[in-house]
UniProtKB/TrEMBL annotation, chain A:
This is Glycolate oxidase. InterPro entries: FAD-bd_oxidored_4_C, FAD-bd_PCMH, FAD-bd_PCMH-like_sf, FAD-bd_PCMH_sub1, FAD-bd_PCMH_sub2, FAD-linked_Oxase-like_C, FAD-linked_OxidoTrans_Type4, Oxid_FAD_bind_N. SUPFAM superfamilies: FAD-binding/transporter-associated domain-like, FAD-linked oxidases, C-terminal domain. It comes from Propionispira arboris. PANTHER family: GLYCOLATE OXIDASE SUBUNIT GLCD (PTHR42934).
Automatic annotation (TrEMBL), chain B:
PROSITE patterns: 4FE4S_FER_1, 4FE4S_FER_2. It catalyses: (R)-lactate + A = pyruvate + AH2; glycolate + A = glyoxylate + AH2. Component of a complex that catalyzes the oxidation of glycolate to glyoxylate. Its EC number is 1.1.99.14. Its cofactor is [4Fe-4S] cluster. Keywords: 4Fe-4S, Electron transport, Iron, Iron-sulfur, Metal-binding, Repeat, Transport. Residues 17-47 form the 4Fe-4S ferredoxin-type domain. GO terms for molecular function: 4 iron, 4 sulfur cluster binding; glycolate dehydrogenase activity; metal ion binding. Binds 2 [4Fe-4S] clusters. It is an enzyme of class 1 (oxidoreductase). This is Glycolate oxidase iron-sulfur subunit. It comes from Propionispira arboris. InterPro entries: 4Fe4S_Fe-S-bd, 4Fe4S_Fe_S_CS, Cys_rich_dom, Glc_ox_4Fe-4S, Helical_ferredxn. The lineage of its organism: Bacteria, Bacillati, Bacillota, Negativicutes, Selenomonadales.
Length: 460, 437
């Protein structure tokens, strides 16, 4: 990048907020996705919307790629500056502007950490439900851009269900305000939803109006062990058919169970084909009724062992196994790919079997756990990225996993986003017409293709 | 020449970083360390947090980066508080890897000139002793004492010390010069060696007094070897492993020459050096490793010793009618993992109301020499700690480390919070004194 531009950027945000040292650039060359890194030419740290607008106007004029970034914890290479250019670091936007208890909304800047918002919401008996595994580190801007979900997705949905309005800066520097505090709002195209999950390819989020919901008064956790995977599958279908929507309905496959047991010694039988973790929440009366109903479904479907948490300590114990899933798998090998291929929930057992078959066929280690209730699975491949031969097998296995998810009527991503990681299969899932439509949107809003170029819809 | 090419370093010290290649590869870049790193919380800069630092070290190994002055500066910005390692889902010991990175920097570029000077003085035990004794004698000329106990502020600009910073005055007579080598008791139950450490010997002699009183009160003979010296931790964490090893060898020699049942230290970092770090230092030296192990196995932090080994007398404790909270030093909480024992001591004191503060084991921002080199940053980290202390409604904050105590006292004064910072053992001593009346 020419020195001349650099001076202009320095004028906008101050010299101390333009990083160009080799070490600083190196630290923003990656995110939490293995296998992708590239040095940016500068890291620019704005603190208000006018600065973002000025930066984008200048970048657009000179066709400099811009990569918005929060905490850089995404799993789809969404923040990696693959074409150099600018990393636009948004973590100085860290103020909560308004907590509106009459409308149950919060207006916030995108650099606020998700857990910090939840701590404030909790003081008012409210929650912001999207809870990805990175709540303690991820920024709201990042979770909105990636449309992040979490463990409560079945009942509470993902980020897009909570974003009511946005302030967005377009590639040309224009500042847009979409949506607002209205519960009902059908005025025009739903641009709020368009920018939510756009992974930084359509605009830069500088403010968000988010919906909060009342915190559940009471929770009940149940863990069930199955020697037979089909019985676990039938249980999931049975719970939904009984018109119960648990907040959490998690599954772990045999590979994950064995790894977790080896790591955390929580007492899971090594020959179990599946473990389900179910949590119902809400009013105490409803929770008691629903928990009984869940127990009935578990018994009908021959659960081999059932544990019900009677207090917080027991709840923590049940959750320990599920919480250990990713760390236990990640500790097996140096490199960890956490995928989030998702299938209709009726297809979960079939998908899990496919993944085990693929692991055997290509001789790679894959543990699968995830959100059975919403079909969002996390096939987790552990390997060593330095072993090139192994990586060939990993790539082949990954390809098969995505193809089988698509074949089962599923989708490439339930909550992590596409970025670069899942880009190769986009056309397979959506077909060329949908891809053309998506690319038209991209070109209309970002004609010079400066915003996170090459991601989500690929080159266009 | 500002940069040292990676090839030169690899030729000289290929093993130095190469053997941590696998340990570095375990970091999956999830960024969970961002949630707990006290420095990242203030700077929000990726180079501040373990994920960034480990990536940079990996970049050295891959040849993408060089061991530059900037890298040196970045790696120096770590408090060694171990919060990242404790919070890592992959079990990456980032704190140790960062020290390994610093070792490579020292090998490639040498120590920072200021540290070089300080460590040169530190490595000459006799000269160091004379210098610090002089500091105690002439201290009142250069430092003004403040009404707060054990607090002083510089009268004129001092190199490396922020002019507003409150430090503790040097003792006019160091602890070890005030006691005989063996402080005897009748019918001694045990004989313990007291590793005083520098802070207690030269500055916080009040803690040393309390340790000796409490041990004697529990029928324990205290041996204070006069030739003991700095534990070596400040040198070790700065990356000068060879110099640190010479400190370790000296301490092992000195304590081997006394026939004691146990060795106790009243500082989390010193205790960690004797119990854990020396073993790391001598991993490649089987003979020294065995000797270090003998010392490690009989070393205890004072509260750990009083609770787990002695156990301390509770029949003649007097009342302390005050509310006390506890700040867990990093090397107590995540180093030697001693957090229950100091609380057990405090809660045993009649009349004392114990309250927990929020994030009691979060770093106070001192980090030893870190707070000298990065005072404004360490002040910000400390301000959060002071807020938590204040909100606990305690009248006293107890801790188990001299540098924590000094940094807390500074923070309390700067924030105009009139709460006293003391060592846990001082309260126990005070309680025994009260019991005599």
């Amino acid at each position: 990048m020419q020195t001349l531009y650099m001076q202009e950027f320095q004028k906008i945000v101050g010299a101390e907020n333009v990083l160009t040292g080799q070490e600083d650039l190196f630290c923003y060359s990656y995110d939490a996705t293995p296998g992708y890194s590239h040095l940016p030419e500068a890291v620019i740290i704005p603190e208000n919307v006018q600065q973002v607008s000025a930066i984008l106007r200048l970048a657009n004029q000179h066709e400099i790629p811009v990569y918005p970034r929060g905490s850089g914890t995404n799993l789809s290479a969404g923040c990696v500056p693959l074409k150099g250019g600018i990393v636009l670091l948004m973590n100085r936007f860290d103020h909560i502007i308004d907590v509106d208890l009459e409308n149950l909304v919060v207006v916030t800047e995108p650099g606020v950490i998700v857990a910090d918002l939840n701590n404030i919401a909790a003081k008012h008996g409210l929650i912001y439900p999207p809870d990805p595994g990175t709540v303690a580190t991820a920024t709201l801007g990042g979770t909105i851009a990636e449309n992040a979900g979490g463990l409560r997705g079945l009942k509470y949905g993902v980020s897009k269900h909570y974003v009511m309005g946005l302030e967005v800066v377009l590639a040309n520097g224009d500042i847009l305000h979409t949506g607002g505090r209205n519960v009902k709002d059908v005025s025009g195209y739903d641009l709020t939803k368009l920018f939510t999950g756009s992974e930084g390819t359509l605009g830069v989020i500088t403010q968000a109006t988010l919906k909060l919901v009342p915190a559940p008064e009471c929770k009940k956790s149940i863990m069930a062990v199955f020697k037979n995977l089909d019985n676990a599958g039938k249980t999931v279908a049975g719970i939904i058919a009984a018109k119960i929507t648990p907040a959490t309905l998690e599954i772990m496959d045999n590979a994950t169970i064995r790894t977790v047991e080896d790591y955390a010694h929580v007492g899971l039988p090594l020959d179990a084909e599946a473990v389900l973790l179910i949590e119902v929440d809400g009013m105490p009366e409803v929770v008691a009724k629903e928990a009984n109903e869940v127990l009935r479904v578990l018994k009908t479907n021959h659960a081999d062992d059932i544990q019900v948490a009677q207090n917080d300590a027991e709840r923590d114990k049940l959750w320990a196994a599920r919480r250990a899933a990713l760390p236990a798998l990640a500790k097996l090998r140096p490199t960890t790919y956490v995928e989030d291929a998702t299938v209709p929930r009726s297809k979960v057992p079939e998908f899990l079997r496919e993944v085990s078959r693929i692991a055997k066929e290509f001789n790679v280690t894959i543990g699968t756990f995830g959100h059975a209730g919403d079909g969002n699975m996390h096939p987790t491949i552990v390997c060593d990225s330095r072993d090139l031969k192994e990586m060939e097998s990993v790539k082949k296995a990954m390809n098969e996993i995505f193809l089988s998810a698509i074949k089962l009527g599923g989708t490439l991503s339930g909550e992590h986003g596409i970025g670069l990681g899942k880009l190769p299969w986009m056309e397979q899932q959506h077909g060329s017409k949908v891809m053309d439509a998506m690319k038209s949107i991209k070109r209309a809003l970002d004609p010079n293709l400066i915003l996170n170029p090459g991601k989500l819809v690929g080159e266009c | 020449m500002d940069y040292v090419a990676i090839k030169e370093i690899q030729n000289k010290d290929q093993w130095l970083l190469a053997d941590i290649r696998d340990a570095l590869a375990k970091c999956m870049k999830c960024g969970n360390c961002m949630a707990v790193c006290p420095i990242y919380k203030e700077t929000k800069n990726e180079a501040s947090v373990a994920r960034g630092k480990l990536s940079l070290i990996e970049g050295i190994l891959s040849g993408e980066n060089e061991i530059s002055a900037d890298l040196d500066h970045i790696l120096s910005k770590c408090l060694c508080c171990k919060a990242c390692a404790a919070n890592c889902p992959c079990g990456v010991k980032a704190d140790e890897l960062i020290i390994r990175g610093r070792q490579a920097v020292v090998k490639a570029r040498g120590l920072h000139p200021v540290k070089k000077l300080v460590f040169k003085l530190l490595s000459n035990r006799k000269l160091f002793d004379i210098a610090l004794k002089a500091a105690g004698l002439f201290g009142p000329l250069s430092f003004k004492r403040l009404p707060r106990k054990m607090a002083a502020v510089a009268r004129f600009p001092m190199p490396g010390i922020d002019k507003k910073r409150i430090t503790a005055p040097f003792a006019s007579v160091p602890l070890r010069s005030r006691y005989p080598e063996v402080v005897k008791v009748a019918n001694a139950k045990y004989k313990v060696g007291f590793f005083t450490g520098c802070m207690i010997n030269y500055i916080y002699t009040d803690v040393g007094d309390a340790v000796i009183h409490v041990l004697n009160h529990n029928d324990i003979e205290v041996v204070i070897p006069s030739a003991q010296h700095c534990c070596g931790t400040p040198v070790y964490v700065s990356g000068d492993k060879e110099l640190a090893k010479s400190f370790a060898r000296h301490i092992i020699n000195v304590f081997e020459s006394y026939d004691v049942d146990y060795v106790i230290a009243a500082c989390g970092s010193c205790a960690e050096a004797l119990k854990i770090e020396y073993l790391h230092m001598f991993q490649d030296d089987p003979v020294m490793y065995e000797r270090a192990k003998v010392l490690a196995n009989k070393t205890y932090e004072i509260s750990e010793f009083l609770v787990d080994i002695v156990p301390f007398r509770r029949d003649d404790l007097g009342q302390i009618l005050q509310t006390v909270t506890m700040h867990d030093p990093c090397h107590m909480a995540r180093g030697i993992k001693v957090t229950k024992q100091p609380r057990e001591i405090l809660q045993a004191i009649p009349g004392l109301t114990f309250v927990e503060m929020k994030d009691a084991d979060r770093c106070c921002g001192s980090g030893g020499s870190f707070s000298v080199a990065n005072y404004p940053l360490s002040r910000k980290i400390n301000d959060r700690k002071i807020k938590n202390i204040k909100e606990s409604s305690a009248e006293i904050v107890a801790t188990s480390c001299g540098t924590c105590r000094m940094h807390l006292a500074d923070g309390l004064e700067q924030n105009k919070v009139y709460i006293e910072a003391v060592h846990v053992i001082q309260l126990l001593d005070q309680s025994y004194q009260a019991g005599k009346i």
